[in-house]
Design brief:
The chain is α+β, with helices and mostly antiparallel strands and about 140 residues long. It contains 3 helices and 5 strands; from the N terminus they run αβββαββα. The chain starts with a helix and ends with a helix. Bound molecules: adenosine monophosphate (AMP). The site of adenosine monophosphate (AMP) has 12 residues, from loops.
Length: about 140
């Protein structure tokens, strides 16, 4: 089932496009958290970041700083968040990988200010750190 972003990529439905190459498209978010809120989307149709091909991931990696530079130059924003949600529990609404570029204006969390982050940090237990380092290293494939 193609996502709404695939339909945008195929130009079946309109968007406010700011960038396009053979592997990446970027357009204004239709419900922005702040002025200049942009979505950067791989042409490759995958639901989760970890499913992207190396080629598509590299293309996104190249395009994201380039588009971000243009957004901050255009808006004058001094701060910004890059947000990338995976899975409904993590607030992903559109099942097609996308990165949000969200300019942050001031330090508030009101409408139009940008992303508000409710970050409830814990403490890293030494035993968890040891276990996680061993397991994550074991699973990294290069
Ligand atoms: P997420 O919660 O990370 O999946 O974010 C999906 C984003 O897509 C939301 O911020 C929506 O406002 C945005 N969105 C959904 N449909 C469109 C559309 N047709 N054009 C632009 N942005 C859209």
């Amino acid at each position: 089932m193609p996502s709404i972003f695939t339909r945008i990529i195929l130009r079946e439905i309109p968007c406010h496009e700011v960038y396009r190459d053979s592997q990446v498209i970027a357009f204004l978010d239709i419900s922005p958290l702040s002025l200049g809120h942009v979505l950067v989307v791989p042409v490759e149709e995958r639901e989760f970041l970890h499913e992207l091909s190396e080629e598509s991931a590299a293309a996104i990696g190249r395009a994201l700083p380039r588009i971000t530079r243009a957004v901050i130059a255009a808006t004058g924003a001094k701060s910004y968040n890059i947000l990338q949600n995976n899975g409904a529990a993590a607030h992903q609404a559109v099942p097609h990988v996308h990165f949000h570029i969200i300019p942050k204006y001031g330090e508030g969390s009101g409408a139009g200010c940008g992303l508000g982050v409710d970050w409830k940090a814990g403490q890293l237990a030494p035993a968890d750190a040891k276990m996680l380092v061993a397991k994550i290293r074991e699973h990294i494939k290069v």
